[in-house]
Amino acid sequence: MKRRRKKAFVITKVKPKLVFVPPEKFWGKKIAGAIFLILGSAILTACLFSFLIIPVFFQKECPRVSLPEETEQTPQRILIPRLNLDLPIEEAKLLEGQWVLADKGLSFFSGTTSFDKSGNIIIFGSNKVLTKLNTIKKEDKIYLFGQEKYLVFEVIETETVLPSDETIFGEGDQKTLTLFSTSDYLKGKRFVIKAKKI
C-alpha cells in the first residue's frame, strides 16, 4: 500500500494593506473636530467673561437688608403656682409723684432691669390682688413671661418692711426678682418676696 503524504502547511507573511481614505471623509472629520474645538473655546471664553470680567468691571451694589432689632423683653405676665395666681403685668405710671397701681394686675418699674440683663426686676401690686402673698414659702417657683421669653425664679427670702424702706430696690450682680404688696398691708408694712433666677 502506498502511504499518503501529508501536506505541509507553510506560514507566509501577510503583507500589510494600505487603507485608502477618500479625501471627502478625511476633510469632513477634520472640519468636525475644528467646529467642536471652536465651540469649546467659545463656551470657555463666555464662562470666564461672565464670572471674572463682568463682576470686576460691572459691579452692582447689593441691596442692604436691615435685620429686625431684637425687642427688649419686659415683664408681661406672672404665674405663681402655689398661690394659683396668673396675672398680667403692665408698666407702672407715675402720676403727680405717685406710682399708679394697675387695675386688674401687677405693675413693674420701668427703670429696673430687663430680661437680658443682670439685676433686680421689681414688681408690685395692691393687697387686694395679692391677697395670699404671705402664704408663699421658700423654694416656691415664680414664672415671669415677657414678649417672647420667660424666666423661672425660686423664692429665697420673705420679709416685711416699712414703705420708707428703699433697700428692696437695690440692684445686684445676679438676676433677681422682688415682688411686694402695697396699700396698708400688715398694718402699714409691705410684704416682700425675693427670688433668684434658676
Describe this structure in words.
The structure is a single chain. This protein has an 8-stranded mixed barrel with strand order 1-2-5-6-9-10-8-7. A two-stranded antiparallel sheet has the order 3-4. The chain is rod-shaped, with a radius of gyration of 45 Å. The model has no long low-confidence stretch (mean pLDDT 76). It has one helix at 23-57, and strands spanning 77-80, 85-91, 93-95, 98-100, 106-108, 119-126, 141-145, 150-161, 175-182, 190-197. It is α+β, with helices and mostly antiparallel strands. A hairpin with a 2-residue loop joins β3 and β4 (98-100).
Please give the number of β-strands.
Answer: 10
Whole-number total of structural domains: 2
Low-confidence stretches: none
Q: Which of globular, elongated, flat, extended, rod-shaped describes the shape? A: rod-shaped
Q: Major β-sheet, in short? A: 8 strands, mixed, barrel
- The proportion of residues in beta strands is 25-35%
Summarize model confidence as the mean pLDDT: 76
Helix content: 10-25%
Amino-to-carboxy terminus distance: 123 Å
Q: Might you state the CATH topology name of the largest domain?
A: Sortase, Chain: A
Which oligomerization state do the chains in this entry correspond to?
single chain
CATH architecture of the largest domain: Beta Barrel
Number of helices, where a helix is a run of at least 4 consecutive DSSP H or I residues: 1
Q: Reading side by side through the largest sheet, how are the strands ordered?
A: 1-2-5-6-9-10-8-7
